[in-house]
TrEMBL record, chains A, B:
Localization of this protein: Cytoplasm
Keywords annotated in UniProt: Aminoacyl-tRNA synthetase, ATP-binding, Cytoplasm, Ligase, Nucleotide-binding, Protein biosynthesis
Catalytic activity: 2 ATP + H(+) = P(1),P(4)-bis(5'-adenosyl) tetraphosphate + diphosphate
Family to which the UniProt record says this protein belongs: Belongs to the class-II aminoacyl-tRNA synthetase family.
PANTHER family listed in its UniProt record: GLYCINE--TRNA LIGASE (PTHR10745:SF0), GLYCYL-TRNA SYNTHETASE/DNA POLYMERASE SUBUNIT GAMMA-2 (PTHR10745)
Domain Aminoacyl-transfer RNA synthetases class-II family profile: 58-588
CDD domains: GlyRS-like_core
Protein name as catalogued: glycine--tRNA ligase
UniProt keyword annotation of Aminoacyl-tRNA synthetase present: yes
One BP annotation, GO: mitochondrial glycyl-tRNA aminoacylation
One GO CC annotation: mitochondrion
Enzyme Commission number(s) of this protein: 6.1.1.14
Enzyme class: ligase
Length: 726, 726
């Protein structure tokens, strides 16, 4: 379950803490929705400060780079654009594809998961069962004069907070940093405070309302707006009654208009509905996992957080089906020693955000993480995020608090990645969802979504059972005979034994469907009998790691971005080779035609080795060409040089098939390190020299990750800067 | 533009031929729609006959296999299913993913295309411009009593054809096979004929109506229904007036309900709207191509052809942007010798379906294919389809006939793949769409979607230009001054020179917006001046290869399916290794725990080599396990055997890390050949033996395609069948 929570800086936590009673008895859809929107404005301010001082991160420069090099851009831009819809250009698409390819290797291939690809268009009954039709909604109000739409809870919150701030100003109290956060001037919807003193009782009332904001229903929010004269701050106009706005995109399937459908807001239901087929594919055995990468849609009311809050997005979800009585994991030992940064529910419940470092093994042993399977996936998520280049100092796992989770869930951890837009942003959710999903669909469809397991020892039990004289029943009750037998069969052990006792005394009555029926002793007999069962039948539990690919991708871009000291204008994206859109830049030193066969040869051989290379044979200087590809995050460059006659040794390839003999090839690495350290150090810009064969072999292995740069350096001598003659 | 045409057996062609005048002046959306639906029933019968005799193909067995092994299944099955929506299970997903991976390698990587990933949800104005809102529609009628929905043209056609057939029966004429085709008894909608003689004049009228069926508008179809007393055949009830049913799924973006949106019915618009960004990414130069893989949606009225006609599907589309004055292709020579089976428009126009074999080079030289770029892509499509396993004897390229194409298109070829459901089915379209798409979006948005090319020689031209005395104009015309200047500037060379002459005589008048304005001589001067242009500006043309992945996947499954003689019940899918869902089956000879480390070792090493393997350690016989994986199309098997002490030679791996020393590994290939031949011959079921290292190396190279089985046999000695002892 993704996107249940966006930020968790201290102030927000204290809010969360006090406002979550409502979610207790609701399914995932509400639990997910109630927190995620209000947090952006707080975290934005707090985090951009952190970044500027700690990382000298310049969001404006990054945005300019991403836009200029078409990583992504607002969709339908030439038509004026649509909020919350983005198109990925070539580098963004390739980056996304590489992240997904690594996701498939890391999870599906490595764990032997069963991949599925289910439809986006979904008939309404499915989401009625799952709870989305009723509850995947936000409350909104309309400005009664200009029609502007506002989220009801945000409106109350923003207006009351502004009034409290105005009160503080009037009292001459300096606002604490956390309380001052809402005053972010860039935020269009932000309500400006005016210095005006409030009665102490009013202040207390406002504070109480704010503390339990998520507890109010739509009508209650409407009542608050009337009671406290809350109007649309941007127009001063009154607003109407709160109405529920379902966040699923609705459509209609087929030509009659009688079959409503929705675009899925998550891929999960497609796994659950195919459970029986998947179980059979896995020879009837659990545990197993299904996995799916695909689009999902959420019709956000007013999305304004770039890739962090969009209306159409790519998700990658895993549903790991497991025996509820055995949540150990066979490969847990492989990850037990991984140390994570954890923010557990007890710390948060105490209003704090102090994280602790802990191995996964200890976290499970001490009960911090509920079970081995959940711990295993938390650790695997951590490994995956690090592998693709997320800075581990800006990654933590936050546990959902008791009231934050759906009532059926056993435990839930979010991988939160720090960024300048959303602060600590949930990018992966990892929940133990117990048996909820399969149970509701099974109940609705009457299909048994269960595992049947042969028992080594049969289970023997004695229980009461009723046997009916169907003829007698039919004669007496006619069409109601079925209702009567149903009513008897619905009785539990004690009820049956009571009825047996009554019937031994004479006629007995039983109620069903509001009617009362009189049973005669001869109509049925009730006896305790012995039953032997060889099969155990159970609904498996679901552990669900759920990845928001766009969010991860955006955070990765932030973590990878820096500028060289001597050229602040040009940014560098230090993306790891495994996800970099282009792996190798091929740069011929001159655009003269003699280079063409050599360029072709190197391109072809890299392509055959499965390495995605790109030629830059433009007329600009070699430095500019390197810089341009730094922006694209290209980790390696191969320069095609005129040979230096004084160093014949490495060039023992037969030069006959090349038009520029003798030749030289220079490899340079613009990105070597990974993780948190690279922002402080400059890239090495190391250059190495070798024959075509040697350089291609080294580059291929560098890209595949089978050698690192140090090993490459041992194979190829350093290039000493003696340039070839043109 | 995909899915414009589904089948082209002779009878259908003659129908097509006569009924396509309507499409001349309409954009792609109508040209595509008007043919594709009526062909299924004909081709189904004709082709299943062909298959049964020529290939002993059993569709029922294939369907059972695909369902049992969960290649794909109706979506929402436990909720009763929805027509035209399918979910892919693990083998289907993997097969699709592998086809797409090869597509990316073959097209995007090999050609250096720019991949994009654009949104599915699209605001209405985009499809208003493209023509989809107005014309991406079918005419339907409703049964006035029971509400059943029927496609209007199908209804007229089915009823009149049934009457003609009844007439023939009454006249004692034996129906020709083609004419008998509609009597497919399985087809629910098929209208049964009743022997009843018609007047000769009525027969002639019906035949004339049927011949031009695609020419009728909705109201005309309604007129025909009234004139000929056509009712709903399944109920006998009258039907209402034909109404247009747009095939796009509609929704609404944002909370106000004021922004209608559609789910894209193709991915193409996303390429066109991003053209300027892509051009810039490519340093302003054409030719270049963008490519995209993604979902598209069409709300078909009543889809009933399995994966060939669905409401949600995966497409892969390329838009190759090219200079309209130079459609040569630099790599054309590489494909010129490829021989294709072509069905050109002249043959079809003559009512025939005789194909001819021709090299792409000759086809372009002789003007059969319009230009090199189009020919290049046709050839590359051919190579791709063969590479993934399409039988080349069941693949042809059919040219669109003059009337079948949109008026702006230059040429269009469909890759048609023969199968038992749709006959010759369009699976890939390859069209030269000229400048249509970019032009309409540029006109609508006022964004210049053009290429600017520096000219080597500047172009010098002399032309008349008007210069205005703006003050004088403003004084006289006030707010209309802009209208007046606009009217003058809209004049062509001759008009300007005429106005110049008039003004030399005195005041002149000019009309605009229904008003007349009197221009005084002092208000403007008109002079011929010399202009020098250094830049050529043009709208590039688009060559569009467009792939329906689900259709290709289904045809591939048909072409790969066969049964061994000795076990007809169990099918085999001879999928090439490049697309096979699982590459290697690992079969330990016993499920005893001693095998576990060996199984783990082999699995791990194959995984590290990037080879997707699957372990089958169930308790069934080894033959059953092989058979089970034949059904999944697994091309290679590695059997983990107890070693045979009498053959120590190949086993020189240090056995220390294995728990079952000495050991043997047997490789067997269940699929070696490709293309059309395999159905006639049994798989070799060859077995080879070697050390772990040697077998893994050989299997890896077999899967990568760098060696074939013959080469593998040279490396590994044959296994002589001496089984190890358990």
């Amino acid at each position: 379950m993704l996107f249940s929570h966006l930020a968790s800086i201290p102030r927000l936590h204290s809010v969360n803490l006090q406002t979550k009673n409502l979610t207790r008895s609701l399914p995932r859809v509400l639990a997910r929705r109630n927190l995620h929107s209000e947090s952006l404005e707080f975290s934005k301010v707090a985090m951009s400060t952190v970044n500027k001082t700690a990382h000298a991160f310049d969001k404006t420069r990054l945005d300019a780079l991403l836009n200029r090099r078409f990583f992504y851009a607002p969709a339908f831009e030439i038509y004026g654009g649509v909020a919350g819809l983005y198109d990925y250009g070539p580098p963004g698409s390739a980056l996304q594809a590489n992240i997904l390819a690594e996701w498939r290797r890391h999870f599906i291939v490595e764990e032997g998961m069963l991949e599925v690809d289910t439809t986006i268009m979904t008939p309404a009954p499915v989401f009625e069962t799952s709870g989305h039709v009723a509850r995947f909604a936000d409350w909104m109000v309309k400005d009664t004069l200009n029609g502007e739409v506002l989220r009801a809870d945000h409106l109350v919150k923003n207006v009351l907070e502004a009034r409290l701030e105005g009160d503080k100003e009037a009292r001459g109290v300096v606002a604490a940093p956390a309380a001052a956060a809402p005053a972010d001037k860039k935020k269009k919807k932000q309500v400006k405070s005016t210095a005006m003193k409030l009665d102490d009782a009013v202040v207390a009332e406002y504070e109480s309302i704010l503390a339990q904001l998520d507890n109010y229903s739509g009508p209650e929010l409407g009542g608050l707006m009337r009671a406290h004269a809350i109007t649309n701050p941007s127009s001063g106009n009154p607003v109407g009654e709160p109405q529920q706005f379902n966040l699923m995109f609705a459509s209609s399937i087929g030509p009659t208009g009688q079959h409503p459908g929705f675009l899925r807001p998550e891929t999960a239901q497609g796994h659950f509905l195919n459970f029986s087929r998947l179980l059979e594919f896995n020879n009837g055995r659990v545990p197993f996992a299904s996995a799916q990468v695909g689009r999902a849609f959420r019709n956000e009311i007013s999305p304004r957080a770039g890739l962090l809050r969009v209306r159409e997005f790519t998700m990658a979800e895993i549903e790991h089906f497991v025996d509820p009585l055995d949540k150990n994991h066979t490969r847990f030992a492989e990850v037990a020693d991984i140390e994570l940064v954890l923010l557990d529910k007890y710390v948060q419940a105490a209003g704090q955000s102090t994280t602790k470092r802990m191995t996964v093994g200890n976290a499970v042993k001490e009960g911090v993480i509920a079970n081995e399977t959940l711990g295993y996936f938390v650790a695997r998520i951590y490994e995956f995020l690090l592998k693709i280049g997320i800075d581990k100092t800006r990654l933590r796992f936050r546990q959902h608090m008791a009231n934050e989770m759906a009532h059926y869930a056993a435990d839930c951890w979010d991988a939160e990645i720090q960024n300048s837009v959303g602060g600590w942003t949930e990018c992966v959710g990892c929940a133990d969802r117990a048996a909820y999903d399969l149970s509701v669909h099974a109940a609705k469809t009457k299909q048994p979504l269960v595992v049947r397991q042969a028992l080594k020892e049969p289970v023997v039990e004695e229980r009461a059972i009723a046997e009916f004289d169907k003829k007698a029943l039919g004669k007496t009750f006619k069409g109601d005979a079925g209702v009567v037998t149903g009513a008897v069969e619905a009785l539990d052990e004690a009820g049956l034994m009571r009825l047996k006792g009554e019937l031994e005394q004479g006629p007995a009555t039983i109620k069903s469907d509001g009617k009362e029926f009189t049973l005669q002793p001869g109509m049925l007999t009730i006896e305790r009998k012995t039953f032997k069962t060889n099969v155990r039948e159970f609904t498996p539990n679901v552990i669900e790691p759920s990845f928001g690919i766009g969010r991860i991708l955006y955070c990765l871009l932030e973590h990878s971005f820096w500028s060289r000291e001597q050229d602040v204008e040009r940014g560098v994206l230090s993306l790891p080779a495994v996800v970099a859109p282009t792996k190798v830049l091929i740069v011929p030193l001159s655009s003269r035609a003699e280079f063409d066969p050599l360029v072709k040869e190197v391109s072809l051989r890299l392509r055959k080795a499965g390495v995605h290379a790109r030629v830059d044979d433009s007329n600009t200087s070699i430095g500019k060409r390197y810089a341009r590809n730094d922006e694209l995050g290209t980790p390696f460059g191969v320069t095609l040089d005129f040979a230096c006659a004084s160093r014949p040794e490495p060039y023992d390839d037969p030069p006959v098939r090349l038009l520029v003999p003798p030749f030289a090839i220079v490899a340079h690495a613009s990105k070597l390190t990974n993780g948190g350290a690279f922002r402080r150090e400059r890239d090495t810009m190391d250059q190495r020299i070798g024959s075509i064969d040697d350089v291609i072999a080294a580059v291929t292995e560098l890209v595949n990750g089978s050698i690192d740069w140090a090993e490459a350096c041992q194979r190829l001598p350093a290039y000493d800067g003696v340039q070839a003659i043109d």
